[in-house]
């Protein structure tokens, strides 16, 4: 006899859960509060949708700093390769780019949404748009149904909560799932922004706004100088501080510090040792020996950065290069190898790529995604206390946990 399954949320986790549950012969209805499904997918990967990452299972786990080991069953049951096989079978062509990131060949996230829509339609899922869910009805420790915002009560056998986090609330991720989980007896681990741009104390960062640095090495240290995290790649200066790929990934490692009392050290020339950089600057200074210091750094640094470096170096801008002392040159080398910014906070959680925190993994069976507290209640995706780095890992979590929940409900 077919069971009645309700899926709350039409994002990646909800769409996968709905399709898989219907494939199992259940009568499935997907409730989405927006007027269309897949709103967050559409804006992911800057509109291109970084579907997954072409790494192995261990790679997926290692790139999930927020409770990665909880996801072993999900990833082994429905891996990134299984996901790509399904999407390819449905007609979506994909490609692998730098960092093993996987995108649709078309570079259009709408094609991913259309493919998932095709998937759930082929399985007979009923989609109810503009249908916000108010609560999950529980009777004798089991799911009994749901209540919609308009007061309508609907009976069912099981519910999958796939409502996302609280990042990008414009897409519908406004934390509804946390409220429903809490009301049904679950613990919610404190919600914090993850993969978020960082705020700087220094006022001069505004002068660098829009400047992108490639191939730099960053190190985050606590206020006692202890290393927290190191990464290499691209970053961006903003009017409030710093952003870009390496900054977003690094932000996850200072979440427990509340993004405060942390120093960001940037090695602007990681390919050169201090000695080699000193030799390089010595050559530049010989070349520009008759110029003023402010006009002698063009070969070494981006134009926008020169005034800031001059100010921090303590060398007078009008000083002639042939008058710069050995000690001043050495200090300049140290500055370029250890360009420090004091971090004092992060942008609001609404701007985070992903929400850290959520429904406690201790209260969810990792083999089925079913609640250990309420029978017939399942969780999938960002609503759970799991979070990963950028690079397609968070979407992979959503698809895998959605699949596992749909398979078991």
Q: In words, what does this structure look like?
A:
With 409 residues, this protein is α+β, with helices and mostly antiparallel strands. The chain folds into two domains: 4-192 and 354-408, FAD/NAD(P)-binding domain (3-Layer(bba) Sandwich), CATH 3.50.50; 197-346, Helicase, Ruva Protein, domain 3, CATH 1.10.8.50. The protein contains twelve helices and 19 strands. A six-stranded antiparallel barrel has the order 12-15-14-13-16-17. Strands 6-2-1-10-19 form a five-stranded parallel sheet, covered by helices on one side. A hairpin with a 4-residue loop joins strand 4 (94-96) and strand 5. Helix 1 runs parallel beside helix 12 and helix 9 crosses helix 11. The longest helix is centred in the C-terminal third of the chain and has 16 residues, at 393-408. The model has no long low-confidence stretch (mean pLDDT 96).
Q: Specify the overall morphology.
A: elongated
**What's the rounded overall pLDDT mean?**
96
CATH topology of the largest domain: FAD/NAD(P)-binding domain
Can you tell me the CATH class of the largest domain? Alpha Beta
- Widest β-sheet, arrangement of strands: 12-15-14-13-16-17
| Helix share, percent | 25-40%
Strand portion, in percent? Answer: 15-25%
How many helices? The count is 12
List its salient traits.
409 residues; alpha+beta; Helicase, Ruva Protein, domain 3; 12 helices; elongated
Write the layout of secondary structure elements.
Layout: E1 4-8, H1 12-23, E2 27-31, H2 39-43, E3 52-53, H3 57-62, H4 72-77, H5 80-89, E4 94-96, E5 101-104, H6 109-122, E6 126-128, E7 133-139, E8 142-148, E9 153-155, E10 158-161, H7 176-183, E11 188-194, E12 198-200, E13 212-222, E14 227-237, E15 241-243, H8 245-251, E16 262-267, H9 274-287, H10 306-313, H11 326-337, E17 339-346, E18 354-359, E19 377-379, H12 393-408
Parallel strand pairs: 1-2, 1-10, 2-6, 10-19
Antiparallel strand pairs: 3-5, 4-5, 7-8, 8-9, 11-18, 12-15, 12-17, 13-14, 13-16, 14-15, 16-17
Helix pairs in contact: 1-6, 1-12, 9-11
